[in-house]
Amino acid sequence: MIAYKLRVSFNFNLNHDITDLDLDMFENMPKVDRFARVLGLTHDADESEINIALRRFEKAQVKAASDIFDGIDFNKITSDDCDKIFERISSNDTRFLYSSLKLIPSAYGKWQEDKSGNLKPYPKPKITTKPVAAVLDKFGLGWKRSGNGSRFYRVNESDLDNMTKYAKSRYEKALS
Question: Which of 35, 126, 150, 155 could form a disulfide with 163 if both were Cys (CB 3.0 to 4.6 A apart)?
């Protein structure tokens, strides 16, 4: 039964030989779906008639993912890029939305007020690479340090290729 669900989920032929990677991607389907939003992929279904609690809000996720990673090159993420991403995901204007869309860790959706009842800003760590690594992990991506003289990070090529392949395969019908 799982083999059938896996094949249907990724639009594979019903006699497709399932690999360990196929199974791993199937088990991490939410990450594949989140990464699909980075690529701008959504299902064709019209959810306007569905109960609001059951909607997926895919178009909102596409817009939010675009906002989070705007101007970011996955092959060269500098510390300035990490600061930009952190500011985007921790801003009181957006962090609750991004958290409820499940694009960033849920800790960013925590509401904290000061003694006067005003919303406190999300605390910024000294080094913003760890929060960015957590966000990338939500999208199924890992990264490693690169660069000789200038230090920067690069998303693992295999992660990027695999997520792209499986996201496109899953949303194949939406592409045609």
Answer: 35
